[in-house]
Amino acid sequence: MPIPDDHKVSLRVAGMDYAGWKDVRISAGIERQARDFSLSVAWRWDGQAVDLPIKQGAKTEVRIGQDLVLTGWVFATPISHTPDAITRGITGRSLTADLVDCSAVNQPGQWRKQSVQQVVQALTQPFGLKVISQVPETAALVDHSIEPGETVFDSIDRLLTLSRLLSTDDAQGNVLIVEPGSAGRAVDAIVVGENVLEGSAPLDFSQLMSEYRVVGQKSGTDESFAESTNEVAASVTDPRATRYRPLLIQQQGQLTSQLARERVNWERGSRVGKALTTTYKVQGWRQSNGQLWVHNQLVQVKDPVIGFDREMLITAVEYVLDDNGTVAMLTVAPPEAVLPEPQDPHKARKLKKGGKADNFEYLLPADWDKQ
C-alpha cells in the first residue's frame, strides 16, 4: 500500500533530504526530556556496498510530511547484512538529549531567589539550548543547588517537582516547561470500535499506599532556629487503599509547609493516575483534521472494554511504520499521573449523579469531567 505524502518521513542532514524509509519509529512524551527516532531501509545485495553519507554526531531534522517533529543529533548508524540484503539505519535523539546524558557542572552550582525558568535557563546555558515556558513565570525560589554527580535533567526535574511542572522538548529541540494539558486538546476522540486497533491497560495498583508522609527541613532565621521550627512535615491518607500501607518520604532541599502538602498530594494523585495508564494503537499518524497526534493534549477516551468514558491526557506518542503500515501508539492517563492539582483533589470528591459512569470514576477527583 503506497504511503500518503502527509505520512512520508524525511531526514534532513546538511541541507540534504533522505526519504524512502521502510521502518520508522519516532517517539515523544511529556515525562521525557528528549524525543528519539529510528529509521531504516533495506536494499537487495548486488555485490556493491550501499553508501549512506550520514555520520554520527550530525545535526538533523525529522519531518512527517511538511511537519517538523524532531530536531536533534544522529547518535548511531547501524548496519546489518545477509547474503541477500543490506539494511542501513539512522537513530538519534533531540538536541536536549545532552541534558539527560551529561552532568550538571555549573559554577557556582547554587541559585537563590530566582524563578524556576531562570534556574532552568542557567542549567541549560552551557549547551546553547533555548528554554520556552508554556506556564507563567514562577515565584522566586529560596534556593536550588546542584547535587554532586546528578545530570542536568535530574537537577531540572528535582527543581520542577515541587513546583508541579515538567520539562520536556519540542520539535525544534528547545527545552519546554509545561503542565499537563498545556498543549491544548485533541480534535478526535479515542473510541473503541471506531479508530482503535488495540488497547492495553495493566491496571496495576501495587504502588497505591494508605498514607503518604513527607518530612524535610527549612532554613532557620535569627529569630527561629530551634529544631521544631526547622522540621517541616505533611501527611495525607488515601481511603482507596484497602489495608495499612504507609510511605515516608525524606524530601531533599528547602521545604515549606505548602510545598510539603503539595508533595504528599502529588504522590497520592500520581500513583493512582499511573495505575490507570493505558496504551492505544490507532490507524495512521494524523487526526481527522490533518493534525498529527501529539502528546500533552487532553483527549476523550471511550473504551467499554476496559471501562473508560472520560477525558484523559496523552502522555506519550510513538509514530510507527512497518510492513503493516502506519500506526500511532498513544499512551493516555489521568492528568494527575504526571502532575497533581495544587489543592487536595479528594477533599470534596463525589460520584456523578445520573448518566453512566465509567468503571474507575471512584478513583478520580470530583471535577475530572469539568475541564
Short description:
This protein is mainly β. 13% of the residues lie in helices and 36% in strands.
Main sheet attributes: strand count, strand direction, barrel closure: 14 strands, mixed
CATH class of the largest domain: Mainly Beta
The CATH homology group name of the largest domain: Baseplate protein-like domain - beta roll fold
Shape: globular
Rg (CA only): 23 Å
Query: Proportion of β residues?
Result: 35-45%
Question: Any key phrases for this structure?
Answer:
Phage tail proteins - horseshoe like beta roll fold; 4 domains; 371 residues; Phage tail protein beta-alpha-beta fold; 14-stranded mixed β-sheet; mainly beta
List the helices and strands and how they pair.
Elements: E1 9-13, E2 16-18, E3 23-29, E4 36-44, E5 59-64, E6 67-76, E7 79-81, E8 85-94, H1 97-101, E9 110-111, H2 116-124, E10 131-133, E11 144-145, H3 152-161, E12 166-169, E13 175-178, E14 190-191, E15 196-200, E16 211-217, H4 227-230, E17 231-237, E18 246-254, H5 257-275, E19 278-283, E20 298-303, E21 308-322, E22 325-333
Helix pairs in contact: 2-3
Describe, in plain words, how this protein is organized in 3D:
The protein has about 375 residues and is mainly β. The chain folds into four domains: about 90 residues, Baseplate protein-like domain - beta roll fold (Phage tail proteins - horseshoe like beta roll fold), CATH 2.30.300.10; about 80 residues, Baseplate protein-like domains (Phage tail protein beta-alpha-beta fold, 3-Layer(bab) Sandwich); about 100 residues, Phage tail proteins - horseshoe like beta roll fold, CATH 2.30.300; about 60 residues, Phage tail proteins - 2 layer sandwich fold (2-Layer Sandwich), CATH 3.30.1920. The protein contains five helices and 22 strands. The strands form four sheets. Strands 1, 2, 3, 4, 5, 6, 7, 8, 14, 15, 19, 20, 21 and 22 form a 14-stranded mixed β-sheet that branches. Helix 2 runs antiparallel to helix 3. The longest helix is centred in the C-terminal third of the chain and has 19 residues. The chain is globular and about 75 Å long. The two termini are about 40 Å apart. About 5% of the residues have low confidence.
